[in-house]
Design brief:
The complex is a heterodimer. By secondary structure, chain A is an alpha+beta fold. In chain A, 38% of the residues lie in helices and 18% in strands. Chain A is globular. By secondary structure, chain B is of the alpha/beta class. Chains A and B meet through α1, α2, α5, α6 and α9 of A and α2, α3 and α6 of B. Chain A: GO terms for molecular function: 4 iron, 4 sulfur cluster binding; heme binding; metal ion binding; sulfite reductase (ferredoxin) activity; sulfite reductase activity.
């Protein structure tokens, strides 16, 4: 993983000092709340329903074991002993006191962590594939470019007061695990005539006006990555709407002026700066690459005996089937740790679990951990021979729920229990759903389903791109939920379709169950996935069944 | 409001002139409309001319005047409206403007360094106390990640330069 040098450490310390001074001025009244708000937001500090919330950046979702321990420390020392991993490959803490925030930040900075640009109208933490540098599918490690973007975007003087927040995601694999088509900018690394470059997708996003992004350039040579991004951001900063916060995202600008006109403006700006100071030469890219310390992989072979023997245990085999993925290095594997236990809030981990995961990463996984946008954790480099022991250890910690990719692997925003924007609760609904589908046999029979829940139209739970999407709405002071089907966040991203009127909370779980029962009946064979069946049949047959009992 | 130029408190020699006002015999700051309409007359006077350029207007329209303008004032109606950052860089880096580039409006201390990095050299500071803090604010950071027209080296470039000199 990327190793910070003296420069990065100096910068982080200066950032902590700056924030400490800003908090001091807020507490003394020199800054009013309106003035303080954007400053705290840019350090990841929100004022939520009950308390300040701190969101910590995990650049491109990569954590060292020691960084995970620093997160556990913050959970224990400053919060209520747990943290919440989010769809932005971040973690957030919900109960930190404003007075203690500078100290918490200083503790984090010692581990190379911070809350920088996890909120505010700036370029947010760039996200990527949690399987980066581990999956055999990718053409190059996308984190190299995510790191290049991190450096360029960190406290960018021109782009720190944009019309709205700005999110960039990048992938280098055929299977998009970074949801690049629903980001302000999505970048897909691919090769053309032996050269590596990017497909540039702009204007995707969820929220109240969801859009799938549009490709504005099929192939951008990698050396021009930053100048092209700067041209896009400049076009947005100068021309994006600021009259209405709901219309201030780049997706609205692209939609209103048209993809063609938007592309023309970007290309015109880019032509002026493309060979300037932002040009990346091979030396610059190699210098970044040299800062990524790769694990010293052991020479091993696939399918070691101990693994083959362990698969005779059906519980292990079940977990292996949905949590373990192939690795690019023989004898290794990628492991997803489910943070979706039956009855638990999706994405939460206790300080003890975080410490334990850090220890397991050190023992079995070359000390590296990833955060996935599905609110799970990934150990990207695990020795196959250690899988049975890792599984036993995870099981003891309550972290071996064999549901990754299945119906109870739910994405959910914090909802009305924590968030001041929410109209409805998300977590209790997710908990009820995991209980209803707790039977692993049944969940396995239903197969791959992404169920995403958002507690309001801002769509932090990515409901638009859930195979089943659930959106909380308020009706006459009561919580209701709209249901969509057919959304996808992958390389064939599309938005789900609403099946009909919103249902009260008490009925949601039954409706979901009826939709899934309909699928099991209507599928051509067990190999036809839920999403494939929805695409083949349309939403009608599901809609009929969903409301049949009402 | 206190004007800070190159980090020091200075007296503002410019008078802001409304569109329907007669020009005084002094350095004058005029609106964009007036500049575009009366450019010849304005520059024919024996007094420096400055313009207040709104952040919704294309700053590249200033191209014909950059060599003659003494001040360009770019506007931050709210500090959260960051369009003038882009305008400043274009003015400095694209049009090669060398005169005074002034930030006006809701100009607060936590933005000073960003403004200077984008090319502003004069800050019309909104709060008295903030004007005292300019020097300190500009030293908040000693390291910068991205190149702008201010010419400061980025870590990436500094590292590469160090590697080359070995």
């Amino acid at each position: 993983m990327y190793v910070y040098d003296e420069f990065d450490r100096t910068f982080l310390q200066e950032r902590v000092d700056e924030f400490r001074d800003q908090v001091r001025r807020r507490l003394s009244g020199e800054l009013n709340e309106e003035e303080f708000k954007p400053l705290r937001l840019m350090n990841g500090v929100y004022l939520q329903l009950h308390a300040y919330m701190l969101r910590i950046a995990i650049p491109y979702g990569t954590l060292s074991a020691d960084q995970m321990r620093a997160l556990a420390h913050v959970a224990r020392r400053y919060d209520r002993n747990y943290g919440h991993f989010t769809t932005r490959q971040n973690i957030q803490f919900n109960w930190i006191k404003l007075e203690e925030l500078p100290d918490a930040m200083a503790d984090l900075a010692r581990a190379g962590l911070h809350g920088l640009q996890t909120s505010g109208n700036c370029i947010r933490n760039t996200t990527t594939d949690p399987w980066a540098a581990a999956t055999p599918e990718e053409i190059e490690d996308p984190r190299l470019y995510a790191e290049i973007i991190r450096q360029w975007s960190t406290l960018h003087p021109e782009f720190t007061y944009l019309p709205r927040k700005f999110k960039i995601a990048i992938t280098a694999a055929k299977h998009d695990r970074a949801a690049i088509r629903v980001h302000d900018i999505g970048l897909r690394l691919h090769q053309r005539d032996g050269e590596t470059g990017f497909e540039v997708i702009v204007g995707g996003g969820l929220g109240r006006t969801p859009f799938v992004g549009k490709t504005i350039r099929e192939f951008l040579p990698r050396h021009h990555l930053l100048s092209y991004l700067e041209a896009v951001l400049r076009t947005y900063n100068a021309g994006g709407r600021r009259d209405n916060i709901y219309k201030a995202r780049i997706k609205i600008q692209v939609h209103e002026i048209g993809t063609e006109e938007f592309t023309r403006r970007v290309e015109e700006e880019w032509a002026q700066i493309k060979d300037g100071a932002l040009t990346l030469d091979d030396a610059a890219i190699d210098a970044i690459r040299a800062h990524f310390k790769e694990p010293d992989f052991e020479a091993l072979t696939d399918e070691p005996e101990v693994l083959v023997a362990a698969k005779a245990d059906s519980a292990f085999a079940r977990w292996f089937g949905n949590s373990v993925a192939p690795h690019k290095v023989p004898g290794h594997a990628i492991v997803t740790i489910s943070l979706k236990p039956v009855g638990g809030p999706p994405g939460d981990a206790t300080a003890e679990q975080m410490d334990a995961i850090a220890d397991l990463a050190d023992r079995f996984a070359y000390g590296e951990i990833r955060v996935a946008h599905e609110q799970n954790l990934t150990l990207p480099h695990v020795r196959q021979k250690d899988l049975p022991e890792l599984w036993r250890a995870l099981d003891k910690l309550g972290l071996a729920t064999p549901n990754v990719g299945l119906i109870s692997d739910i994405i959910a925003c914090p909802g009305l229990d924590y968030c001041s924007l929410a109209n409805a609760r998300s977590i209790p609904l997710a908990q009820d759903l995991t209980k209803r589908f707790a039977d692993h046999e049944r969940a396995a029979d239903i197969g791959r389903v992404h169920l995403n829940i958002s507690g309001c139209i801002n769509a932090c739970g990515h409901h638009h791109v859930g195979h089943i999407g659930i959106l909380g709405v308020e009706k006459k002071d009561e919580e209701f939920y709209q249901i969509t089907l057919g959304g996808k966040a992958n390389h064939k991203a599309r938005l789900g379709e609403l099946i009909g009127p919103a249902v009260p909370e008490s009925e949601v779980v039954d409706v979901v169950e009826r939709i899934l029962d309909a699928y099991v009946e209507l599928r051509q064979s067990p190999s036809e996935t839920f999403i494939a069946a929805v695409q083949r049949l349309g939403i009608e047959p599901f809609k009929e069944r969903a409301y049949a009992a009402r | 409001m206190p004007l800070v130029k190159h980090g020091k408190l200075v007296t503002d020699a410019f008078v802001t002139v409304a569109d329907d006002e007669t020009l005084p015999d002094a350095p004058a700051l005029v609106s964009a409309e007036r500049l575009l309409k009366e450019a010849d007359a304005l520059f024919a006077r024996n007094q420096p001319v400055g313009v207040i350029w709104p952040n919704s207007k294309d700053v590249l329209d200033l191209a014909p005047f950059v060599d003659r303008l003494a001040v360009v004032a770019l506007v931050f109606p709210k500090f959260r409206d960051g369009r003038a950052y882009t305008q400043a860089r274009l003015l400095r880096e694209r049009l090669g403007y060398k005169g005074e580039l002034r930030a006006i409006g809701n100009v607060l201390r936590d933005q000073f360094l960003l403004m200077v990095r984008c090319g502003f050299d004069a800050l019309d500071v909104a709060k008295e106390a903030d004007a005292q803090a300019v020097e300190k604010e500009l030293k908040t950071y000693s390291v910068f990640y991205q190149p702008t027209g201010d010419g400061r080296p980025t870590p990436l470039r500094a590292r590469l330069a160090a590697a080359r000199s070995v």
